[in-house]
Every structure is written in structure tokens, then in C-alpha cells.
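hey so u asked for the seq, here:
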Amino acid sequence: MPVAAGVIRNKGWYGYFKHAHRFTFSAIDGFVRRRLRAMLRRQKHRPGQGRCLRDHKQWPNAFFADLGLFTMYEAHQLARQSRCGNN
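ran it, C-alpha cells below
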């Protein structure tokens, strides 16, 4: 699944989870990144789930942010801001 397709799909999931507890979003974002790391591992013919430190160093969170991965945590932070600009 290309990152662009994942962005659209995650935006839909944000609509589903938007009323969840605020800690839910970072947990889901972490799960999505782990799954993406596991897919990248498979492309390199390496078994595993993408949970080791080596994988995190090879594909850090900034790697996915640079690709434009939608994060539910950031979307939730933006949604919590006041519409008037008063935080």
C-alpha cells in the first residue's frame, strides 16, 4: 500500500476514533508505523515484525513524516485547538 493510500485510509479512521481518549492516538500511530516497518522489512527479505531498534534507526518516525504519513495524534491536536485561535 503506497503512503498516499494510507493517508486517505488513516484520515477515515481518525473520523472513527476522534472521540476516543487522547492517549489512543499515539498508540494507533505507533501501531501503523510498526506495520509499515514490517512491510519494509519484508521488501528487503528480512523476517520479523519491525519492532527492533535497528528497524527504528533505519526507518525513524521522521522518515514516515517526510513521506507525508497522516498521524492521528497531530490531527487530534489540531482539532482540539480553539476555532477562535485562543488555544
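The two ends are 36 Å apart (CA to CA). The CA atoms of residues 1 and 36 lie 9 Å apart.
lmk if thats what u needed
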